[in-house]
Amino acid sequence: MDPELVRHVAASTGLPGEVAARVVADVVAYYSETTEEFVRRRHRELQARDRRNAEIWTVIADELAHRPVAPGEVSERRLRRIVYG
Prior knowledge:
There is one protein chain. The protein is 72% helix and 0% strand. It has helices spanning 3-13, 17-30, 35-48, 53-65, 76-84. Helix 1 (3-13) packs across helix 2 and helix 3 (35-48) crosses helix 4. It contains 5 helices and no strands. The N and C termini lie far apart (34 Å).
C-alpha cells in the first residue's frame, strides 16, 4: 500500500492514519477484481434484485466503462460468455 496515499486520505478526511490505511486497503481490494470476477459478481447481484439479463448487460457494460482501469468496450456477447462460459 502506498504510504503517501494513506497520508493524503488521512489529511484530506481527518481520519486517523490506521483508519485511512483500512479505507485505502478496502478500496484497493474492491478494484483488484478481474473483469471476469466483477462481471460474475455483478450479474449475481443484479439477478438477485430480479433484473432481467437484457438490463443487466447494459448496467454491467456501463459500470465497466467507468472503473478506474476500464477493460475497454465489452460486448454483450462477451459478458454472456464470462457468466455462462
